[in-house]
DNA sequence: TGAAATGTTGGGGCG
DNA sequence: ACGCCCCAACATTTC
């Protein structure tokens, strides 16, 4: 008689270096399940881009499991009970999640199953370090990135494991992936996304290999220029756990990259770890200011401004190019993410949570920890955040990081013919130049929805309220 | 992982 | 030769 274990897949959609899967495999047969949880209290519904990615990643995982991935929809506690009854499994293994709602749900399920005599074990598949592992000398959590990363780096990352050998996958009743309708239909805004992305473990490995044999060289310098293909684009693969950070870390060591480039890339993985560290310390990170003094900030509401920002119609080409790249591909270069976030928060004085929600819906790498930590970083309300008064000039940022305007031209074709001198400032171009380039301001491309100098002054005035606010304890 | 305002320095034109 | 002014270039501070 064989022993059967359930492996509950969540954000670990891979076979290699998957500790829950390996532990189950070591016991005997495995039933692999993904549960679409739209029922649990507080679990945030997936954004549109995430649903698209999940669809294709589940299809890839199913292929890797010989077509035996079990798909169920509903309350995970109930679904797991049913599957235990159906398969005779006596153990359930999974890899950890770190957002508050998942933590609460999983703890409750773990207690309930153990109460019924089921063996339950959870593992770390997503992070180099558990978020509670890295502590200061005084045994407190770090609040500043650099010392956090120094302490973490010193520990060294664990090596990755291979996919388990002799995996025996059992079958069970499954729902149809297509019936979940995770991909958009009317309209199908992701029709050409397979050109940009290959969700799944194999796609993740291919992306890593391409990066380590290509763009890693020169990464430290080139990554700042959004028109260049100079970043890894591993973020969605990492979010869904199609590749482990341990694998990336180890592969980087074998890649013989220049030390400066390797360290710059490792540092980005470090920010990801730090985001999870912060989320663990402060579970409300996605919804509340880490620095409570920012509760006093006088945010504006303006549906029209938010709409213009989302659609990439602010009148500042560099900002609009980023927002259109996001809409078109489910991704935005990190440099530009900072600029568009700064623009929403400071030029428009819209609450960072509005931007966080848009990114959650539209990014293929939407991630509760990274998204919240990054928005709070830009807002100035986060831990070790940029100071509030660091207000990006949308024109200067464009000139600095997109000097020839290639990025703007790629995503805003209506500005394609503008000479370099005016590509970041169409509103300053003489009418003859605009006419020559076929640009009609206010018609083919909007005028700026705010004046930079005025917006900057208003943002700084709003910040006075934060400075005089009394923070809550323990900051 | 900024930008703007303000301060300092030094070279060149000029009386 | 010298002082004065202008201003660019760079440094510092302030937001």
Describe this structure in words.
Helix content is 45%, strand content 6%. It is mostly helical and 475 residues long. It folds into three domains: 4-125, HUPs (Rossmann fold, 3-Layer(aba) Sandwich), CATH 3.40.50; 126-158 and 201-281, Serine Threonine Protein Phosphatase 5, Tetratricopeptide repeat; 292-467, DNA Cyclobutane Dipyrimidine Photolyase, subunit A, domain 3 (Orthogonal Bundle). Helix 14 (352-362) runs antiparallel to helix 15 (368-379). It starts with a strand and ends in an 8-residue tail after the last helix. The structure holds a DNA duplex (15 and 15 nucleotides).
How large a portion of the residues is in β-strands, by DSSP E? 5-15%
So what's the overall shape?
Answer: globular
Instruction: Record the strand order, biggest sheet.
Output: 3-2-1-4-5
Corresponding CATH architecture of the largest domain: Orthogonal Bundle
Count of separate structural domains: 3
Please name the fourth-level CATH homologous superfamily of the largest domain.
DNA Cyclobutane Dipyrimidine Photolyase, subunit A, domain 3
Number-wise, the strands total 5
Share in helix: 40-55%
Largest sheet: 5 strands, parallel
SS summary, helix count:
19
Question: Spans of 5+ residues with little confidence (pLDDT < 50)?
Answer: none
| H/E element order | EHEHEHEHEHHHHHHHHHHHHHHH
> What is the distance, rounded to the nearest whole angstrom, between the alpha carbons of the first and last residues?
56 Å
Helices and strands: which structural class? mainly alpha
CATH class of the largest domain: Mainly Alpha
Write down the Rg. 24 Å
Instruction: Summarize model confidence as the mean pLDDT.
Output: 96
């Amino acid at each position: 008689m064989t022993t059967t274990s359930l492996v509950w897949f969540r954000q670990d959609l891979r076979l290699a270096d998957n500790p829950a899967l390996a532990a189950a495999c070591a016991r005997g047969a495995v039933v692999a399940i993904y549960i679409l949880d739209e029922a649990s209290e507080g679990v945030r519904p997936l954004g549109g881009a995430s649903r698209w990615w999940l669809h294709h990643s589940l299809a890839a995982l199913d292929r890797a499991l010989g077509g035996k991935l079990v798909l169920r929809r509903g309350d995970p506690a109930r679904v797991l009970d049913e599957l235990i009854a159906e398969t005779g499994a006596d153990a359930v293994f999974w890899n950890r999640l770190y957002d508050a709602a998942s933590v609460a749900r999983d703890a409750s399920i773990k207690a309930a199953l153990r109460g019924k005599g089921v063996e339950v074990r959870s593992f770390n598949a997503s992070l180099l370090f558990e978020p509670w592992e890295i502590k200061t000398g005084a045994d407190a959590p770090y609040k500043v990135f650099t010392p956090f990363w120094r302490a973490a780096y010193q520990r060294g990352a664990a090596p990755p494991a291979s996919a388990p050998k002799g995996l025996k996958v059992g079958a069970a009743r499954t729902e149809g992936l297509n019936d979940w309708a995770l991909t958009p239909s009317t309209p199908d805004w992701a029709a050409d996304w397979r050109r940009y992305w290959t969700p799944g473990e194999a796609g993740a490995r291919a992306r890593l290999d391409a990066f380590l044999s290509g763009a890693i060289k020169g990464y430290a310098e080139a990554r700042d220029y959004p028109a260049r293909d100079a970043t890894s684009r591993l973020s969605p693969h990492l979010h869904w756990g199609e590749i482990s950070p341990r694998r990336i870390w180890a592969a980087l060591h074998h890649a013989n990259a220049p030390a400066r480039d390797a360290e710059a890339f490792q540092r980005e993985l470090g920010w990801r770890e730090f985001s999870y560290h912060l989320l663990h310390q402060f579970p409300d990170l996605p919804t509340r200011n880490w620095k409570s003094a920012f509760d006093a900030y006088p945010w504006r509401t303006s549906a029209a401004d938010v709409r213009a920002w989302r659609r990439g119609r602010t009148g500042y080409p560099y900002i609009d190019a980023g927002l259109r790249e996001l809409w078109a591909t489910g991704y935005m270069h990190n440099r530009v993410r900072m600029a568009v976030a700064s623009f929403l928060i400071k030029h428009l004085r819209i609450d960072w949570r509005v931007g966080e929600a848009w990114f959650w819906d539209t990014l293929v790498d939407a991630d509760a920890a990274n998204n919240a930590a990054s928005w709070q970083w830009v807002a100035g309300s986060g831990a070790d955040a940029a100071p509030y008064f660091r207000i990006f000039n949308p024109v200067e940022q464009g000139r600095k990081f997109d000097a020839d305007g290639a990025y703007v031209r790629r995503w805003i074709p209506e500005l394609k013919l503008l000479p370099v001198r005016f590509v970041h400032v169409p509103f300053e171009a003489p009418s003859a130049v605009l006419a020559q380039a076929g640009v009609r301001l206010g018609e083919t491309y909007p005028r700026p929805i705010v004046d930079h100098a005025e917006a900057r002054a208003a943002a700084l005035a709003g910040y006075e309220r934060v400075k005089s606010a009394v923070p809550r304890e323990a900051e």
